[in-house]
Design a protein that fits this description.
By secondary structure, the chain is α+β, with helices and mostly antiparallel strands. The protein has helices at 14-22, 38-41, 53-63, 77-87, 94-99, 103-112, 126-136, 162-171, 230-246, 280-289, 293-302, 336-340, 378-391, and strands at 3-7, 26-30, 44-46, 67-69, 120-123, 140-144, 154-156, 178-182, 187-196, 199-210, 219-224, 252-260, 266-272, 317-323, 328-334, 345-348, 358-359, 369-375, 393-398, 401-403. An eight-stranded antiparallel beta sheet has the order 13-12-9-10-11-14-18-16, with helices on both faces. A four-stranded parallel beta sheet has the order 3-2-1-4, sandwiched between helices. Helix 3 (53-63) packs across helix 4 (77-87).
Length: 408
């Protein structure tokens, strides 16, 4: 029996663990022990941090694995590439994984390739951040160079906000380094691709709308395919192809996000050499293209032939709809079963909500309650979003009174 190691055991890694088991593979999950659903599904588990490259390598050698993979998370990408490279297993290469998990390295590589790039600097001290901010003279975004889930991301409009934002970003940076970059106003997009023999093939592209909450850089909706200006979309897809191929990825999935300024010029926000999180890889890609990304990633990890003949394009309209719950105690959770019974709902985190549960303050993507919806047109998808929202009757008792979900 072949052995497949999956790094990560959260809700978004469960589909690949389950698919591997159905294929008769022996599954080994790497994750710190805790309330991670994949730990209950995998055949064997190791209590290791997903970033512990050497520890994971030793576990892989002990188990004589035939392949290693992950899905929908940046945190495990370097470990997967590190182990694969050292054991001579299929993978994207360690240097490539480092590029795709370092936001500043992405900017420098884009500049090297002559691609449009946001003005930025990498800083490790408040003084250097202040110097760059003053020289730029515009609002900026501060981000950890090496984290995910929008943790520690802050917008700064004037110097009085910079010190606190720098400390917040550095708190979430494993390396201690921060990228400070020009803030661009405009529409945001997502592009997802599959790469085979170094050639990028676009799978799907969508429109992103962010929550209108200060320093919460996460999407309230994602809708596929994009219905924005076709000329901008054409520029977007060319930039994505030039970026992914220029970054040197030879195989795998990509999930990239872009922003187009008021002139319609797109810029890379960040690119990932993995499937998109929050059900994008496991569910949206299947709805949009027919590609089962779990099967693809398993085949890639085991070095088996990749069949892309059946991949379609824009097979339906679909998207994700998300909300946050305010800090407090849930006192009502009605309409959840009814919402999940809609035939246009294909995946959801709603079942995690229950009366009596405590909700915490939120500042990043990880606290969202996400659902996947589908339709035959953009108009029908928007109507399905309305039906879904209106069906839910969730109330939270907060210090400021009774409040409902935060949808935008």
């Amino acid at each position: 029996m072949k052995k497949l190691m999956i790094v990560g055991a959260g809700v978004y890694q469960v589909p690949i663990i389950e698919k591997a088991k159905r294929r008769g593979l022996y599954t080994i999950a790497i994750s710190p022990y805790g309330d991670y659903p994949g730990l209950k599904v995998a055949d064997k588990t190791y209590d290791l941090d997903v970033r512990d490259e050497k520890g994971i390598l030793q576990a892989a050698i002990r188990e004589s694995i035939d392949g290693i993979t992950t899905d929908q998370t940046d945190m495990a990408m370097r470990s997967v590439a590190y182990v694969a490279e050292r054991l001579g297993l299929p993978g994207i290469g360690y240097e490539c994984a480092k590029l795709f998990t370092d936001k500043y390295a992405m900017r420098r590589k884009s500049e090297e390739l002559g691609l449009p790039s946001i003005k930025c600097a990498e800083v490790d001290s408040y003084e250097s951040a202040e110097e760059f901010f003053t020289s730029l003279g515009t609002p900026v975004i501060l981000k950890p160079v090496d984290n995910q889930g929008s943790r520690g991301v802050c917008r700064v409009d004037d110097l009085t906000e910079l010190k606190e934002a720098f400390a917040e970003a550095q708190k979430f940076s494993p390396s201690g380094n921060i990228i400070i970059e020009q803030f661009i106003e405009g529409d945001e997009f997502e592009v997802d691709s599959v790469v085979i023999d170094g050639q990028e093939h676009t799978l799907m592209y969508g429109d992103i709308v962010l929550f209108d909450i200060p320093n919460v850089f996460s999407s309230c909706t994602r809708m596929y395919p994009s219905c924005r200006d076709p000329e901008v979309v054409e520029r977007l897809l060319k930039l994505n192809k030039d970026t992914i191929e220029g970054f040197g990825l030879k195989c795998g999935l990509t999930h990239s996000e872009y922003i187009a300024d008021r002139s319609g010029q797109p810029y890379l926000i960040e690119a990932a050499a993995r499937g998109g999180g929050a059900f994008v890889s496991s569910d949206i890609t299947l709805l949009q293209t027919g590609l089962d990304t779990s099967e693809y990633l398993i085949d890639m990890a085991l070095g088996e032939p990749i069949n892309t003949d059946a991949i379609g394009s824009q097979l339906c309209h679909c998207g994700t709809l998300s909300f946050y719950l305010p800090e407090g105690t849930v006192i009502r959770a009605d309409g959840i079963k009814e919402a999940l019974d809609f035939d246009f709902v294909t995946a959801s985190l709603l079942n995690e909500i229950s009366v009596g549960m405590k909700t915490e303050p939120f500042s990043d993507k990880t606290a969202r309650y996400i659902s996947v919806l589908k339709a035959d047109s953009r108009e029908e998808l928007e109507e399905n979003y309305r039906k879904f929202r209106n069906t839910l009757d969730i109330k939270v008792e907060t210090p400021n009174g009774i409040e409902g979900p935060i949808w935008k």
